[in-house]
Fold:
Amino acid sequence: MSNRAMLALAVSAVLLIVPWLLPSFYVGIFAYAGIYALVAIGLVLLLQAGQISLGQGAFMGLGAYGSALVARAYGIDTLVTLILSVSATALVAALIGFITLRLRGHYLPLATLAYGIALVSVFTAWHDVTGGASGLDKIPPLRLFGFELTDDRLYTQLIWIITLLAVLGLARLRTSRTGRAIATLEAHDGLAQAFGVETTALRVKVFVFSAVLAALGGALYVHLLRFVSPSPFSLLTSFKLLIMAVVGGPMSAAGGVVGALTLESAQWGLQGILARWGLSGNLEVIVFGVILVVMLLKWPHGLWPAVEKLLPQPTLRSRAGEGLPRTALTANRDELLLRLQGIGIRFGGLQALEGIDMELKRGEFVGLIGPNGAGKTTLFSIISGLQRQTAGRVTLFGEPLPAGHVIVRRGMARTFQHVQLMPELSVIENVALGAYSRTKAGFVRGLFALDGEENRRALASARAALERVGLAAEADLAAGSLPLGKQRIVEIARALVADPQILLLDEPAAGLRFSEKLTLVKILRQLQAEHVTILLVEHDMELVMGCVERLVVLDRGRIIAQGSPKDVQADPAVIAAYLGGGRDKAA
Amino acid sequence: MIDTFLFLLVDGLTNGLVYALLALSLVLVFTVTRVVNIAQGEYVMLGALTLADLLQGRMPGTLYLLIGGLALCAVLDVGRWRRDWRQALLYTAGLAATGAAAVALTLAALALHLPVIGMMAVALVLVAPLGVLIYRFTVHPIPNATTIVFVIISVGVSMSVQGLGLLIWGASPYPVEPIAAGGVMMGPVFIPYQSFAILITAVLAMGGLYLFSEFTLLGKALQASAMNRLGAQFCGIPVNTTGALAFLLAAAFSAVSGMLLAPLITANYEMGFMVGLKGFVGGAMGGLIDYPLSLVGVMIVGGLESTSAYVASAYRDVLVFSLLIPILLWRNTRGRVEAR
Amino acid sequence: MRMLSVVCAAATLLASAAAVAADKPELRIGSVVAMTGPASALGLPEKNALELLQEQLAKDEDLPFTVKFITYDDASDPTKAVNNVRKLITEDRAHVVICCSTTPTSMAILETVTQAKVPNISLALGQSVIEPAKERHWIFKTPSTDQLQVTGLVDDMVKRGIKKVAFLGLEDSFGEGGWIALQSVAKEKGVEIVASERFSRTDTNFTPQALKVRQSNPGAVYIHAIPPSSALVHQALKRVGYAGPIYHSGGSANNAFISIGKQDVEGALLGTTPVLVYTDMPDSNPLKPVISKFAALYEKRFNVPKVDIFPGQSWDAGNIVLKAAAEVVKSGGKLDDLDAARAALRDKIEATKEFVGVGGIFNYSPTDHLGLDHRSTFISVVKNGEFRLYESK
Structure:
């Protein structure tokens, strides 16, 4: 067992023994800290997926009221009511998520705010059922298999066992296939789609999971307090949870735990200190607010990263052995892979592309060039499914071009003009994302560590791809720490892991130094030798002329020339397009 | 039926306007600094309570906040003494002079028994600089932090300022005199003159801010410093000054909003939060970047509120916020949306 | 500022405690009130009264024990209330707990004080806090119930021949208590409720609800809220054209109501505790001297023009505890034996008879842990900008 795992085990053991060592008043606080930690962990996952939620308090409330009301009214075993209310909340969350997760920018947090307030208002207004603002007492305690959990200490242990399991699960999820996909959700939507991630579905899954944790926290809360009322699930609580997640560190599930413990102990410690001086009440709130501001000024990324620096490195996931199976590529040069017929696209009044007819045969190495503003990138995004043309057809392997996230499964992978790597993930993890469409392990398998075999193979493929492009030594470095040239090559490795028949490269040489360009050309020639079909967009004429077999030249949205590099170089229309007028190109 | 509908329409619009100045403040702060200022509502409270104190002939508790803040500025700047003691001395002297001037102004105003408008101006002078101070303490040190960090920091500021409000003024409500008492009956609805004052101020403010940001160089500079901080600096735009300026103006607008609102509902320490929230909702309808749309947004919020309060008052929050979601979905598919 | 006076008070207490002989047993009174949060308008005055009591006791050398007050803030949140009460019981070893300011928080701590067998005096208005009496062995309360106050008002409505009433109340637990009370009392007295509208403390507009109420044509309107909203709702009602009688709860029984409502609240009828109208009482009424003394002390100490109903609630609670404690010590009980002292205190509190407090005359019994009757509820009317005793009583 690695050092880090042993440390984690030790800390967990301490947290589980603590309830038996503390005086009874502190046990209560520790219990509630555990509940908040559980909910904060779900919120951390949401933040990793790029969603700010101000409605987690409401989901806690749904879980709490659901379990409390049913158990109180019908005397059903609370284990059953707990499961029922958490499931019901998951359904509600799925519905809400499906409706609201398409919202962009500020609209999403605003929507979470909206239903956060709306749901809690229902608790207050529906007096006859929920007891209204005054609440309901006589909520039964938690009963597990006939055993009533009234001992606070045991209950606290149960809470922390659940919370620690959640941390474990989420830590595991982060290094799994789904975890890699989740990391793309915040700012790399195009990347996600290009490698087969169904972003909306994944967002909903993350959302539902966080709601489940919140509902579970709420139900545990209400069977501990044995009293339910709307105020603990208000907007203020949602803010409090957000504070815990951000102060603790939104990059890791452990951050949720750290945030919850820090905030709760700060609050209670403050009360104790101030009470000793005879001051209390709103002075607490003032000092607390100041402490919060100061903490974030000092640690804008949260406390966990600072803590993590002191910890031993975590073990890396295994990437040994055989990778995923690779399709053998034939050398049949006549097979038509990609066909564009009459492609055109219009943006408002601007006709950006018109009448584009192009073909890509197997094994070809084709370059797409043209002056700035010619429409190369637009054409590229149409081919890779990120944009839809307004006229014409695209045919891939004989069938019409499918939806964005399906394209990679058909065998076409791409790189990006602006490098789209997740800087905090390691190089090999970034590359492993390329295997997303070839693997199946989902959210649940990632959470419960049932994906070991498949993950190993995906990582093995990634390792093999890195070896192929000569970056095996950099496998475990943070992707953001590499120079641009190597980052572009990592992107190529990632595309290769998708086992593509067609490789789309969007300006791979942009910003590269001369030696890096040489490496790039070497890799491209190697790929060509392995019968990979390549379509390349580039500005660097020397590089392009030296590698490709055929060129397609665009100018102002139309193809003005197609042919071998020598022919195109001599074509007067091409010269005119680049230089404007009939001047000779410098040799 | 029609009567009631017209009633609710007028009532809703009038009350939506209450949040207008706040929505404008939020948009101003966001477009210049990319900070979503949850604490903006607290300036509403400070403006209202300062005015309440002044009108009652008391030295406003706000002076404690102002002087305390200036002192904290001096303390934070203490590192400069070693490097350049002349500058540091000048700076501290400037801070002290500001504090003294504020106290002197207040004393003069109280002695002269200025009318409501005059006292509003004095209150404005006392509250607006607090915006600059908050900027100095919370945004200036970490200009490149993410949006979420700024959100949490502003929550912390909101907690502290509200707590300080409770400490200084207590929990009881303070009545405030309106600029002009009484009102007019427009059909079945009674509209206080104060509401007209709010309407005029909101429209003028919106118009002013819109023209300023779209048509003046300084306005464009303010926006530039938010869109690309480094780039703006290369263009010679003093980004720290623009940020402080935005916070100053926003605090001023919010304070005025509080002073205009207080005669209608009294001033008290917790009035800021709800007004801030509703203003945020209105402003967010315009993506937090569009002044005229923010105005429309708050009208929609006001209209929804009045209608829900009439139809089912116990469930009005449920109705207002649930109906918000379809509106957001509709806005999402139409207008341009700024990245978070 | 208040901070300074708190420090001074603490210093005074320390000094006097040192002066007092160290061999007197110590009575520890723990309290949890809402100093922050939505109920701070209730909790802060309650805390003030406890502070005042503490200062008054410091001057009293005749007490057979020293008194220590420990006060915490629950921020109007049930979880915090429970945790703080636990702290008082286990860490601070309080003999008695005074908690809490609102009904939900008081309900949340029921289990805790019952299991720990600690007597608790609640400052909440809800009836459910002390009923059913069988299950509330350890819990008492000092504020009059909504039930009692509303009964007095509805009786007046019936006397005027009013058959239909409309309800306008806060949507929090305070308003809810009023709604529950009105529903049961109206049913009992045969009055029909024709409209029920709710609003929130922080609302900026009350006209839609007022319009709906007026359109339901009630004979009377009952507003259950605290200023500023209670005054503003009253104003809104007048402005939409309602001209009938408007009743209020004890929540409006303070100066803020009149200074906010001004001319518009003339003629408002309030169900209230004696605190509001003691000056109009005949000198023979035993409540008058007790309230006069308290009002003078409180108004001077906290610089308010007129004391409202909330501080009296904690003042009475504290004094009931002191009286019970004095009796325990007199009959030979030991305050140092915590469990026995707590049980003895509970018994003595329950045996309180004809205790003249600020909120009324208390008579606890095993079946009645509120102990107030019609002698403690009054109706006040706003006349010429002042609260006057209403003749109908």
Observations:
- Chain B has one domain: 2-170+194-339.
